[in-house]
Amino acid sequence: MNKQLKQSKGRPRKLDLKAERVQEDLTAKTSAVDLKAASRLKAERVQLALKGLPGWALTADGRAIDRLRQLASPQGAADYAGFIFREAARRRQRVEVVMSGHRILVTIHAPAHTNGLGITRKQLSFAALLR
Question: Which pTM does this prediction carry?
């Protein structure tokens, strides 16, 4: 019985090492995907993507996208703003929210690593979430 315990103690360690390698591979692949998602899009591609996102528009300076929404009540607007801030924090998005009664203006800014000069797929997917 002690032999079996000693053998079984060695096996999980090998599995742990394999799991660590798999995790490292996944982390490397995820980082590569994040870099692709974080790369700046050309203005034409942003405009094409915005056609599929009703209400969203590129700001005049091209450094952000925004949308004005009217909700049923000021409380609904406040709840929606809370949702936006929670999701923005979770997804590490730069957002600005301006509320006036039941109206809410949401602006999603370009990421800092582009020096504010370009919208990425991440901002567009965040805008799609906020439909």
Answer: 0.68
Rounded mean pLDDT for each run of 10 residues along the chain, 131 residues in total: 48 49 50 50 88 93 93 96 96 95 95 74 94 80
| Matching CATH number, 41-129, of 3.30.390.10, 3.40.50.300, 3.10.410.10, 3.30.1360.20 | 3.30.1360.20
Give CA 55 to chain center in angstroms.
Answer: 19
Report how far residue 31's alpha carbon sits from residue 45's, in angstroms, rounded to the nearest whole number. 23
Q: Where are the domains of the chain?
A: 1-38, 41-129
Candidates 70, 32, 10, 46; CA nearest to 127 is 46
Q: Work out the burial of residue 108: count CB atoms within 10 Å of its CB; fewer than 13 is exposed, 13-18 middle, 19 or more buried.
A: buried
Task: Report the distance separating Cα 34 and Cα 56, nearest Å.
Answer: 23
Q: How many CA atoms lie within 13 A of 37 on its CB side?
A: 13
